[in-house]
Design goal:
Shape: elongated
CATH class of the largest domain: Alpha Beta
Radius of gyration: 28 Å
CATH superfamily of the largest domain: Metallo-dependent phosphatases
Strand content: 15-25%
CATH architecture of the largest domain: 4-Layer Sandwich
Distance between the termini: 82 Å
CATH topology of the largest domain: Purple Acid Phosphatase, chain A, domain 2
Helix content: 25-40%
Structural class: alpha/beta
Number of helices: 6
Number of strands: 14
Order of helices and strands: EHEEEEEEEEEEHEHEEHHH
Number of domains: 2
Strand order of the largest sheet: 3-4-5-6-8-7
């Protein structure tokens, strides 16, 4: 017998997203996790799924009772589900251990496909924070090697937020809507899986895109002022005409001239209004161009400004807090002179 279903996990409904300071924007990101359920329903209809399995972390907090999460086979018309619930957030024992004591004859359950439903780690990775910065401990470990391969036809896993195959019959579906900045090219969140499973055969799992929000990461080392235009082009390539649908982690280093640094500040302000969030690490320094230095230090009509600018240029060439203050003062002086 063959069945077709959708495998999803890690909905994390009610996730706080505390890193998003704007209350309205935070609410939009929280609401999108509910909207993703509608897209899962559309995917189920499109792929003619008989049912949908959710492999844990339906809500962001654990509050269900032990009576609600009993471990026993659940038989439907086209499949048998073997749930492996967690009785606490961090479980030291393998949640699939109870399956090893089952006596599953080859003809049990009328030849229906057997689907294991579990939530945990298979390679020592753990849960993380909103921004995927803090690695959790290796808890809720699932030992796939101890599951009898002929006895089960698909292992639907949750906990890893990217789509990932971890065995011939074992997959993580990933979270249906991104909730953090991804790490690495192999991490593919934002999907559910359309699965075809048959008794005694290898399953087929097809990723189906369900995410709408974009979580992006960009780094830029400003070697010259022209790099600012290249950064703006890179952002536009990712965002297009979208508004309030994207979050960015920006890491900026290098140096810019005074005018370019001002344009960067203006660009970041406009971007902040357009995006749901900017997580910014800006380590750029102001390095006035030769023309900008000349315009400030060679003002024959205003020798006082020339003397002040010359002193600031000398201090700005150093390091430490005094140099940083001097660079800011140079930018303000340049702005004041440009207005006169």
């Amino acid at each position: 017998m063959t069945t077709r279903f959708l495998h999803t996990a890690d909905w994390q409904l009610g996730k706080p997203f505390a890193g998003i300071g704007d209350v309205q924007k935070r609410s939009l990101v929280q609401q999108e996790r509910f909207t993703a359920i509608h897209r899962i329903g559309l995917a189920a209809a499109e792929h003619h799924a008989k049912f949908v399995v959710v492999a844990g972390d339906l809500f962001d907090s654990a509050s269900v009772t032990k009576a609600t999460v009993s471990a026993e086979p659940v038989e439907s018309e086209t499949a048998v589900i073997f749930p492996c619930p967690l009785l606490r957030r961090a479980e030291s024992a393998d949640p699939t251990a109870w399956l090893r004591s089952l006596d599953l004859a080859a003809d049990a359950f009328g030849g229906k496909p057997r689907i294991v439903l579990a939530h945990g780690s298979t390679q020592g990775f753990g849960t993380t924070s909103d921004d995927d910065e803090i690695d959790g401990g290796a808890t809720n470990l699932v030992d796939l090697s101890k599951l009898a391969a002929p006895s089960f036809d698909y292992i639907a896993l949750g906990d890893w937020h990217g789509t990932k195959q971890v065995g011939p019959k074992a997959w993580y579906s990933g979270t249906p809507e991104l909730d953090r900045f991804p790490k690495g090219d192999s991490n593919e969140p934002g999907h559910c899986l359309a699965v075809t499973a048959s008794r005694g055969g290898l399953p087929q799992a097809q990723p189906v895109r369900t995410a709408r929000l974009g979580w992006h990461q960009l780094t830029c080392d400003f070697a010259d002022d022209g790099a600012l235009a290249r950064l703006q082009q890179a952002v536009e390539a990712l965002v297009g005409i979208r508004s309030h649908e994207d979050l960015f982690r920006l890491e900026l280093t290098g140096s810019l001239g005074i005018e370019a640094a001002t344009r960067l500040e203006q660009f970041l302000e406009s971007l902040d209004a357009r995006l749901l969030r900017i997580k910014l690490s800006n380590r750029t320094v102001i390095s006035p161009s030769a023309d900008e230095i000349a315009a400030l230090t060679q003002r024959t009509s205003d020798p006082l400004i020339s003397r002040v600018a010359t002193q600031l240029v000398a201090r700005a060439a150093g390091a430490g807090e005094e140099a940083a203050v001097a660079r800011i003062a140079l930018r303000e002086l340049h702005a004041a002179c440009s207005r006169t």
